Amino acid sequence: DVTEIEEKEAQAKQEEQIMKEQELSNLLHEKRYLKALGLAISLDRPHTVLMVVKAILKEPEGRKHLEENIVRLRKDQKEAVLAFLVTWNTNSRNCHEAQAVMETLLRHEAPDTLLQFPGIKSAVESLLPYT
Fold it and tell me: In the chain, which end has fewer C-beta atoms inside a 10 angstrom radius, N or C?
């Protein structure tokens, strides 16, 4: 009977998820945006990443801070943010944040690097009608 083991594993995963949520909340409160972005991306939370981007943009010199944080993300994190911003861009309430992130990616990533992102073709095709 492995039911008890599975229940313990599920409970441990749930507790870990709660701890990460609390850590994310703390990071946002402390305005540690780079770590907050990384954690939200690792949790695969596009809406949370969007909330972090919005929080950064509300700061004085928000564009500059957004640029600094996006540039410091790892390649896989940038790929995830690109996938997220495709969805954000389709909504008029979130399109400005999506455009700000896209602008940063286009300015700081070489075209050859962007072409290596998986799903870049579909992302560009999805972004064009709304951009």
Answer: N
